[in-house]
Amino acid sequence: MIRKIFFIALTIFYLSGSILTIDAVHAKELCVNNSLNKFQNQVKDEQVNVQDGPYVFWIGHHAIVQYVCNNQKITHHFEVTDSINIASSCEDTSITYKISADPPSPESDTFVGATKIFAISDIHGNFEQLIKLLKGNKIIDNNLHWNWGNGHLVIIGDVFDRGEKVTEALWFIYQLEKQARKDGGQVHFVLGNHEIMVLRGDLRYVNKKYTTITSRKLKIKVQDLYGPETELGRWLRSKNVIIKINNILFVHAGISPVLPKRNYTIEKVNQIIRKSIDVRDYAIRFNEELELLYGSEGPLWYRGYIMDRDDIPMATEEQVISILAFYHAEAVVVGHTIIDTLTSYFGGHVFAIETGIHEGAEGEALIWENGKFYRSNVHGQREFLK
Q1: Which residue has the higher pLDDT, 329 or 12?
Q2: What is 87-106 written as a DSSP string?
Q3: Could you give the CA distance from residue 54 to residue 374 in angstroms, rounded to a whole number?
Q4: Which residues are within 8 A (CB) of 160 and not within 5 positions of it... i.e. 6 or more apart?
Q5: CA distance linking residue 8 with residue 342, whole number of Å
Q6: Separation between Cα atoms, residue 362 and residue 243, nearest integer Å
Q7: Are 335 and 341 in contact (CB under 8 A)?
Q8: Homologous superfamily of 110-384 in CATH?
Q9: How far is CA 296 from the centre of its chain?
């Protein structure tokens, strides 16, 4: 009997240790975010006047549209044969979003012929700073409409979490995509680790506005506000984790040397993650392929271009060149790991663009035009990157 109890206890300890080891990859971010406390979770109680939405839930061709207006739930029902326009907020019904009953198809992950590219990352709900960067560089006009012709705007992940204007940022990008296409341009929303975390129910970094007010008033879990039968949820599930424009790769965290070694093409990575976003945790824990792609050597978490750690050593220039050769690319652009200023590494093969917008910095953007890379600030002042 004693031996049996010991065996059960040992088994529990072993399984707990395995789970903690896997989760430690995600928990490490906690160590670098202590300075964020004054910027996140600013909604302390329901005395704050909260406006949020719209959240659109689809039941066939029936759309249920919900808002939180002055902390109260507002619900509208629509039968949709094709598409409808819904109000952008409780306070401004003059601005509308066009939504379609038909879900979007998975987006392409490879593009050629781009003449100019503008890339930013890690907005984390700081909608105002996103707008300043785009307006300052004339990507949008004073009315927040697309203003960059046939250019490509790339947002490489982490629009979610920390800040209190995630909803506004998401719908703005949603609209801007459509405006850009009409002008021959493109807006690319590449998924980051924080998008995947929220979609999968990891809410550690979600602003309290959403957890204590929106979610509670609507009586819907935060992750279910972006479920596969919601407008924002199915839009997000059409996005990619890695894209390639001309000969430049864009990925939230990075592409580790192990991916090309295992023949993970861009298409393969995007398909696997898209199909597994909604699986249970144990399906990832006990699947070697998913554990790799969702772990510290996967495209959502890899920091090896910038940081040298015991578990994940910094990549060598030889490895970076080998990675780029596998994907027939000349450079890779990443966010995720905070740096002081937008910087190139490995002789201009890696460009790191996460400049701490969510920590209160103005932020910077990467511009590619006429074969050259530039760093640009909120005033549109460019500096050539060697």
Answers
A1: 329
A2: ES-SS--SSEEEEESSPPPP
A3: 36
A4: 124, 125, 166, 192, 194, 195, 197, 198, 206
A5: 52
A6: 26
A7: no
A8: Metallo-dependent phosphatases (3.60.21.10)
A9: 16
Phi/psi for 254 (5° steps) reads 160, 170
- The position carrying tokens 């800040």 is 163
Among candidates 257, 189, 206, which has minimal Cα distance to 42? 206
Q: How many CA atoms lie less than 13 Å away from 259 in the CB half-sphere? A: 32
Q: pLDDT tens digits, residue range 200-232?
A: 999 999 999 999 999 999 999 999 999 999 999
**Residue 203, token pair as written in the block:** 């809410």
**Whether the Cβ atoms of residue 265 and residue 346 lie closer than 8 Å to each other:** no
Quick one: how far is CA 225 from the chain centroid? 16
| 222 C-beta neighbours (distance < 10 Å), count | 16
Return the closest-CA partner of residue 78 out of 95, 109, 100: 100
5's CB contacts (< 8 A; 6+ apart) are: none
Task: Tell me 4's DSSP state.
Answer: H
Q: What are the helix (H) ranges across 185-338?
A: 193-199, 208, 215-218, 231-236, 258-261, 266-276, 281-285, 288-294, 317-326
Comparing C-alpha atoms, which of 197, 156, 114 is closest to residue 350? Answer: 156
CA gap 344, 248 in Å, rounded: 13
Question: What proportion of the chain, given as a percentage, has pLDDT over 90?
Answer: 84
At 379, phi and psi to the nearest 5? -100, 5
Cβ neighbours around 22 below 10 Å, total: 17
Q: Backbone phi, then psi, for 376, in 5-degree steps?
A: -135, 145
Mean pLDDT in residue range 183-195: 98
Q: Cα separation of 270 and 268, whole Å? A: 6
45 by Cβ neighbours in 10 Å (0-12 / 13-18 / 19+) ranks as exposed
Measured distance CA(240)–CA(191) in Å, rounded: 6
Q: Which residues pair with 154 in a beta bridge?
A: 119, 188
Name the band, by pLDDT with cuts 50, 70 and 90, for residue 386: confident
Question: What percent of the chain is predicted at pLDDT more than 70?
Answer: 88
> Helix or strand or coil: residue 69?
strand
Taking residues 88-96, report their average pLDDT: 87
Residue 79, CB-side half-sphere exposure with 13 Å CA sphere: 0
